[in-house]
Amino acid sequence: MKAARLYGEEDIRIDDVEAPTPGPGEVLVDVAACGICGSDLHFYQHPDDFFDDEDLPLTLGHEIGGTIAETGEGVDIEVGTEVVLGPHTPCGECWCCEEGKYNLCRDLNATSARPGGYAEQVVESADNAVPLPENVSPEDAAIAQPVSVGLHAVRQSPLGIGDSVAVVGAGPIGLGAIRSAKAAGAGPIYVSEPQDSRREVAAEFGADVLVDPSEEDAVERIREETGRGVDVAFEAVGHENTLRQAVESTRADGHTTVIGVFSDSVEFEPQLLVQDQRTVGGSTSHLLGPRLTEEYGVVIRQLERGDLDADRYVTSRIGLDDVVSDGFEALLADDSDERKILVCP
What is 158-282's CATH topology? Predict the structure, then answer.
């Protein structure tokens, strides 16, 4: 089968590799679509920060929808079932797993550490295969993973009904946070995003006030309109300036939840927290293992009801052969209008 494999810095090649075989408790999935995630872009640009030489070449990709092609021993799910896959398998034995915090597993078996979804087929634990309703395609369901990351961040935060919110960055994760904050009864929701197309979709997803930080000072605008700053902010970019922007957008005793993935170290002034008793917390991934469907299920039901339109989330669907030029490089381009690109082998 064909697979797109990472060999080194900005070096992905299309290879012919042996098709995988499911073991006990596993399923073989024909991949319908795999979304390109921000973490994959970090792996592509800075592989040495994440992988040892012996780990490469490696097939990336963890936002996967597809169809069960074969099952291993002890698997009940039927061949032909359309599914969306969870990205990681928790160990089930560490203290985080014992407390039900499976996304914080100390021995997580991540898709980024084994062959992933930029391939024609992938093997995954059957426990990570979530069957889909008839009217939800596996291609559309591939967005369940990034949308769930935004949902989890909102659930992790102290956000309450009627709280004011700032979301810095309206990429795939930020859009998930906007939708979830709106559904939780928050408002007004301010969104700071320099790209016109992303601000447009942010408005459709529930943003009340749109700010272009390349044209005006987002912090000044938010603090002026609220009179004090927002109750809760979400940083969904992963850069020093956006972290500061999110924190400074909050009121005294406000909270910032960081969702963005940071490639580089940042300078940060703790006095921003101390002087106004602000707090900052992180949020990673979404619920996993036995709790996977708690958040995946919410997104799948939104797709089933038509409350979430995957076509407003996804900007391009490309073939495997074009994963570099029309996928990774398109997302990294300075003038890119892409939000979510699905690779459809």
Answer: Rossmann fold (3.40.50)
